[in-house]
Specification:
two-stranded antiparallel sheet; 56% helix; single chain; alpha+beta
């Protein structure tokens, strides 16, 4: 990999890390049959939150900073 591509990948990882930290968790909703007695049918909506782990965002952010630093150091030599 040349130095420009290392820097570009590092910048992309930094942006991905920032997005992972600022991403608000959404929720996945699914309906489930709770009671089914003859003509009576009761349903329950179950919400399961989806989110990106802050640890993964931190790893992406630190990895991006390291790649940018390495790319800058190689380009200055």
């Amino acid at each position: 990999m040349n130095t420009k591509s290392i820097i570009h990948v590092g910048i992309a990882l930094i942006l991905l890390g920032i997005v992972a930290f600022t991403y608000q968790a959404g929720s996945d909703t699914r309906a489930e049959n709770a009671v089914d007695i003859g003509p009576v049918l009761a349903r329950v909506d179950i919400r399961k939150p989806t989110s990106i782990s802050p640890v993964l965002g931190g790893i992406a952010l630190v990895g991006g900073i390291v790649l940018v630093a390495v790319g800058m150091k190689k380009s200055s030599q």
